Amino acid sequence: MSTRAGVDTGGTFTDLVALDEATGEIRITKVLSTPSHPSTAVFDAFAKAGLDTRDISYFVHGMTVATNALIERKGAEVALLTTDGFRDILRIQRVTRPRHFDLHWVKPKHFVPRSRCIGVPERVLRDGSVLVPLDEERLREEIVRLRHSNGVSAVAVSYLFSFVHPEHELRTRELLEELWPGVQVSLSHEVLPRWREYERTSTTVLDAYLKPLMHDYMQQLEDECEAGGIGQLLILRSNGGVMTSQKAREQPVALVRSGPSGGIMASSHVGKRLGLGDLIACDMGGTSFEACLLPGSEPTFTNLEELEDGVPIALTMVDARAIGAGGGSLAWVDAAGILKVGPESAGADPGPACYGRGGTQATVTDANAVLGRLAPEFLLAGDLELDVEAAARVLDALAGRLGLSRERVAQGIVDVANHNMAQALRLVSTDRGYDPRGSTLVAYGGAGPLHACELARALQIRQVLVPYYPGAFSAFGALLADTRFDYTQTAWMQLRFLDLGRANELFEALERRALDDFRREGFAEAPRLVRSTDMRYVGQNWELSVAMPGGTLGSEDFERAATLFEREHERFYGYSIPGEEIELLTFNVAAVGARHTVELPRIEPGPAPAPIDRRGVVFRADDGPVETAVYRRETFPAGCQVQGPALIGQIDATTLLLPGSSARVDEYGNLLITA
Amino acid sequence: MAVAATSTEIRTDPFLLEIIRNFLITTCKEMGIAMMRTSYSPMFNEALDFSCVVFDGKGEMVAQAPYVPAQIGSTVHVVPTAIAEVGAENLEPGDVIFTNDPYRSNCHLPEFVVVKPYFKDGRILAYTANIAHMTDVGGMVPAAFGDHQNIFQEGIRFPPVKIYERDEEIESVFKILISNVRTPKHSYGDMKAMIGSLYLAERRIDELVTRHGVETFEQCCDDVKLVSERLMRAEIAAWPDGEYEAEGLLEDDGVVPDRPWKIKATLVIRGDELIVDFTGSDSQCFGPANQTFGTTASAAYNAVLHMVSSDIPYNHGCYRPISVIAPPGSFMNVSYPGACVGGNSDTHPTTVDVLLEAFSQFSGRSSAADGGTCGCIGFGGQDPETGEPYAHLHLEGVGWGGRADADGNDVQFVKNGNCANTPVEVAEARYPFLNIEYQLEPGQVGHGKHRGGFGSRRVFRFLADGVHISSHTNRHRVKAWGLFGGGEGTNTILAFRRAGETEWVRAREAFGSASYGKFSNIVMNEGDEMLFVTPSGGGYGEPLERDPELVLIDWRDELLSAEQAREHYGVVIDEAAGSVDAAATEALRSERRGGAGL
User: Fold this and answer.
1) What is the Cα–Cα distance from A548 to A559, expressed in whole angstroms?
2) Domain holding A110: CATH number?
């Protein structure tokens, strides 16, 4: 028996989707996350699903561990080594501001204080020649000094032009390892071998910031997977592809959007299968809310991402917007007496008050519980008992301070959270001038289906899709991820003076590395190899990627590439310059593993089941409770229709249909809601 | 031509209005990304010294993106002027108008303005426009900035002319242009990138109009302007009626040594209208520090927009309640053939700071003065490898002024622009110089309850002979002023040393220029070095009121010594413990306050 497992670790819950390769059977499990030791929850999930870990041949893991460490600034104390004379690069940044008429914008502080930014005498020139050799004696002194300063556990090294002459950074790592065993090191030419020193340094610093945490996590996970006899462990990265845990450990900054990319890949898969066209994916879990636009059901990517204004991560990642809003988001009253929700979360521990684990502050989930919007009998298959009275108690405390009724406060918390989430949806749609009204909102995560109808109405979106297992949708996406490794070699040459032999050698060398890596990682099948080159007009600063054919290339292949480049230039930028000199900058090979197709299981058609209960749910506090039908999601056959108001409970989420909304179930068990 | 009068009520569905408004802003951003990715000069592809705007068929701005305030403000005037001069009735689909004429409300010669009409059903529904700082415009110095005395020394000037006709380049115009600049290949590529961005924007607008129809689009254009106008008028109406005056000095004009030039501004607030009156400013100067009318209007808009909520959509509606008076022939409105290249780079920020001082008389949103210079230093010569001429304009961030709620930001581009620094690795890959250092200049700052931001310190070393250096920089003599007891910022330092020498010498002493910061064609050779320290911002509020913990953070960050903490802030730091000695600080501060006679 062989099982493929996808696991998504969020701030509150850890979700598992397990696919039996022989039968196609899918098993879903949800357990509470264990933030202090995240792999515990992963194995809890395997155990709870009744999986023998020795049967797991392929395990893809997505997570928000890195994301949350950055958002909450809970990574390592980092020191930065730069070329002498450039220690303030993190403070100077690129000297621009995000809004051109805002006198009150405060330039963000980067992740290393000035006193731990240290210049090291060395200097490499643009052609890779050495102007100032690395001063090893000074470097040794600085390392010893840093080692004895408080709390530093990771060092980022970013020297000028290291991407053309990496020797100084490599030697620096040798000395660090010699003088400071156990320190984590990130080298800029490995993290991002590209010019523009600020973007490279910023990305390298964030990598170092995450490294001690992610290194320990990956190590534990590897050890436990090995002990459990799990076949292949892969980590979902920010661009929707996967990497080995070894690579993830070496370059944790590639995991910053690991969590969201699972759900986005799954949304794309479902959207294409159902022919839904444009999608807006939204994932509301316990801690965070993420939104992404998928025009034509295709995910969008960016490599101009900024963690906040002025703190770039210059790696390709899914173009998702995240805010601190989830079921566990805490409600609080600010100094002006205004009700606020988030970004702080009660997380998995203690969690919302109604989880009965000692939570004493009101959360969004507590508000929903008081309003009767949860169908607790189904959640976590009944493992999690809701203590609605505890929720009422913490809400009453807030109600007292605000001078409002319990229901009004609960309603207020839900409204504020919805407002914040709608803003994030606007950031990826209307704020970019994109009209969301023709798109389908794909709502998932444990809390997404509960808020989906209200969010859809806020953006005038008519159709909402709630996947079959919304709580585990990101884990499902992890299973769909391509195994894709990218290889790049910078080699500057003008097309006019192209050295064909060298160009062929470069491609072949990259492909050999790709095949070796696939073999070493234990993949049975050879990957598909996809070539491209990055080209530009001589004198430009930015490149366009152009696809190249496989095999031994002749000059006619490059002429075709030049034509393709001109066409792309015209298409993207509105013009081309026929006859202008073109240069090649990088040779790229992507090695793409055999795609794991996951067939969505179909369900049998049938008539709508009768509600299992009717109860009062508060939609507007002023109106009081409205009698609402309660359904069990798992009993829905294909083709059945339900009218709102309704509560549709299932193991991993509750879907709320507002009065006036309706839903129908498609052949794959998805709920298609007319909001 | 039947044009309906602008309506006074908002007719578009608010949801749709928001989408279309943002669509147009996104279009401007996309134009900018296309410019960045396709242009040739680091001025565009790294520094982003350009602005992309969309105007409606009436010639009124409907959208802009957060690029360069100085350029955006001038488009309010130069775009309609260019259209009127060529004549909207003479435009056809595929035409592009081009001008760089400062006397037609442009900022200065290097700002190249291109405007393209968008036609639908035979009618002009919108104009897409791009205003971008071209590195070289011919003239007496590479990269345009120096101590010129008239427009002819500054470079080549184009009145509004067509540069494209029905999608075809007008070859003669391009030939004249590229025959008169030092970098023909780059200038041609940059022009193509600018015009390419107009085509891109036109495609986007066409998608929008096709989706929603002509009528909705036009109504939306009227409505977004109306929304902004109302918000703007509400802000102005909330200000107390009256007249508020302020003055400031620009230190010199590069021609007459040691003679400062006065900027005088009066804010006249009447109900929901504002007049910004520069009457009483000095006559136009002999060097290039003059502002054109476009620059002055833009500086006024810039200051006002800094004083209102940043949630107001920026478009023509914002400008409607504002009138600008700038007497012709004055420092604030140069007449032909006066020079003006530096008015846009260094006089504009000072004008804004003078206005902010006037605003500080009734508004808490204001701030102390900033570093007041774009740090424009031009490099030119012949590439030692290819033998081809090159021209590069260096820009630099400065310290900003302290404000009511926070310290001024460190090393940030001055208010009239929003340009990025060019990465060391990009500049060195292209030009024959090295950066030996680029870091903060510790200790040097305008002190205050909220201190000014720090400037930067950069040292260049030249790798070839015959590098021509020209400059138009500011704050070598007049420092950024503080507000409400905050201290002055610190000066710019621009100095040189020949290979093998140890002393830094400034341009006046070393080369006999009239000014420390404004000069032309100093020749640097291999191994020579140049030091450029940018000014810090002024402080806001009394330094003795500064939170001691903030002083401690600066000490920990090695930006302030314990002696400086004591001297400027009355804060005693226990260096061994790494903390503030609260009792000693309190004692010292009360002694100081007493000593000051309070």
Assistant:
1) 11
2) 3.40.50
**Residue A664 belongs to a domain:** yes
A157 with A106, same domain: the answer is: yes
Check whether residue A476 and residue A503 sit in a common domain.
no
The DSSP output letter for A252 is G
Strands (E), A113-220: 117-120, 123-124, 130-132, 152-158, 184-187
Residue A600 in domain: no
Show residues of chain A in contact with B193, CB under 8 Å.
573
A571 touching chain B per CB within 8 A: no
Q: Closest to B412 (Cβ–Cβ): which among A95, A101, A574?
A: A95
Interface pTM (ipTM) of the complex? Answer: 0.94
Number of domains observed in the structure of chain A: 3
- Is this prediction's pTM over 0.90? yes
Residues of B in contact with A539 (CB under 8 A): 40, 185-186, 189
Closest-CA residue in chain A for B37? Answer: A542
Which residue in A85, A96, A125 is closest to B420 by CB distance?
A96
**Same-domain status, A310 and A436:** yes
A161/B425 CB distance under 8 A: yes
Task: Provide the shortest C-alpha distance from residue B597 to chain A (in Å).
Answer: 33
Q: What percent of chain B has pLDDT over 70?
A: 98
Q: Are residues A537 and A467 part of one domain?
A: no
- Using 70 as the pLDDT threshold, list the residues of chain B that sit under it: 1-7, 595-598
Nearest residue of B to residue A92 by CA position?
Answer: B411
Report chain A residues whose CB lies below 8 A from the CB of B42.
541
Alpha helices, DSSP H only, in A275-434? 364-370, 388-402, 406-428
Same-domain pairing of A467 and A556: no
Q: B38 contacts in A (CB within 8 Å)?
A: 537, 540, 542, 569, 573, 575
**Residue A271 is part of which domain span?**
257-480+611-675
In angstroms, rounded to a whole number, what is the distance separating the alpha carbons of residues A510 and A506?
A: 6
- Counting beta carbons within 10 angstroms of the beta carbon of residue B230, is it exposed (0 to 12), middle (13 to 18) or buried (19 or more)? middle
CB of B559 closer than 8 Å to CB of B440: yes
Residue of chain B minimizing CA distance to A132: B436
Q: Is residue A176 located within the same domain as residue A290? A: no
Which of B365, B405, B420 minimises the CB distance to A95? Answer: B420
Average pLDDT over residues A644-672: 93
Check which CATH number belongs to the domain holding A517 and give it.
Answer: 3.30.1490
Work out the pLDDT band at A484, boundaries 50, 70, 90.
confident
Residues A95, B398: Cα–Cα separation, whole Å? 9
Question: Considering A559, A592, A625, which residue would you say is the last residue of a domain?
Answer: A592
- Are A201 and A292 contained in the same domain? no
3-state helix, strand, coil in chain A (%, to 5): 35, 30, 35
Instruction: Identify all chain A residues contacting B164, using CB atoms and an 8 Å cutoff.
Output: none
